[in-house]
């Protein structure tokens, strides 16, 4: 937003819209596991709309969508996400999006061992074959970062340092 104050609308960058060009900002087939934090902390004024930002086929485990319970995701689009987020029920539904689901617990995701950073979907996981491949050709039909039939274990992340 440059060096302009929030109430100053005249400047080289729009304070009403942030637009991702072309296909836009696409976030798909990710596993976002941040149980004690927010999915999104938007810089700048909440009135600034984010245009052409799309999230689909993601597993999202967060405490809340946004710290402001009134925030509705601007003009971002959400599709086919599996969400475990005990914050605002309305925000969780928005985050799941069309074709997505809000689940009651991490256990309902039926992942191999999320506490040990193994997010592989089990046979009866709701992540299997629930995604869409229509939005981007590199996406896969399983929701989350790990397609069925593969195995991957993320190493534990140590404390952040400067």
For this entry, give a set of tags:
single chain; 162 residues; mainly beta; four-stranded parallel beta sheet; three-stranded parallel beta sheet; 1 helix
Overview of the molecule:
The relative contact order is 0.16. The model has no long low-confidence stretch (mean pLDDT 85). The radius of gyration is 17 Å and the shape is globular. It is mainly beta and 162 residues long. The chain has one helix at 89-96, and strands spanning 17-19, 25-28, 31-38, 49-51, 53-56, 59-64, 77-79, 82-84, 101-102, 111-113, 118-121. The strands form four sheets. The chain has a four-stranded parallel sheet, with helices on one face. A three-stranded parallel sheet has the order 2-5-7. A two-stranded parallel sheet has the order 1-4. It is built from one helix and eleven strands.
List the helices and strands and how they pair.
Elements: E1 17-19, E2 25-28, E3 31-38, E4 49-51, E5 53-56, E6 59-64, E7 77-79, E8 82-84, H1 89-96, E9 101-102, E10 111-113, E11 118-121
Parallel strand pairs: 1-4, 2-5, 3-6, 5-7, 6-8, 8-9
Antiparallel strand pairs: 10-11
Taking the alpha carbons of the first and last residues, their distance comes to 26 Å
How much helix, percentage-wise, in residues? under 10%
Q: Gyration radius, to the nearest Å?
A: 17 Å
* Assembly form of the protein: single chain
Structural class: mainly beta
What is the overall number of helices? 1
Q: How would you state the average pLDDT, rounded? A: 85
Largest sheet: 4 strands, parallel
Q: Looking at the structure, what is the overall shape?
A: globular
Write out the strand line-up for the largest beta sheet, numbering strands in chain order: 3-6-8-9
What is the N-to-C order of secondary-structure elements (H for helix, E for strand)?
Answer: EEEEEEEEHEEE
Number of strands: 11
> Proportion of β residues?
25-35%
The low-confidence parts are none
InterPro entries: Pectin_lyase_fold/virulence
């Amino acid at each position: 937003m440059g060096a302009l104050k929030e109430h100053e609308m005249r400047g080289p960058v729009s304070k009403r819209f942030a637009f991702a060009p072309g296909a836009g900002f696409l976030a798909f087939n990710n596993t976002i596991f941040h149980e004690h934090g927010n999915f999104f902390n938007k810089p700048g004024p909440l009135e600034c709309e984010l245009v052409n930002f799309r999230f689909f086929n993601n597993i999202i485990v967060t405490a809340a969508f946004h710290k402001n319970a009134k925030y509705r995701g601007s003009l971002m689009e959400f599709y086919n996400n599996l969400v475990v987020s005990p914050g605002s029920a309305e925000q969780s539904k928005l985050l799941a999006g069309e074709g997505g689901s809000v689940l009651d617990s991490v256990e309902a995701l039926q992942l191999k061992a999320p506490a040990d950073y193994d997010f592989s979907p089990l046979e009866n996981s709701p992540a299997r074959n629930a995604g869409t491949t229509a939005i981007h050709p590199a996406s896969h039909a399983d929701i989350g970062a790990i397609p069925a039939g593969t195995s991957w274990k993320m190493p534990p992340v140590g404390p952040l340092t400067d």
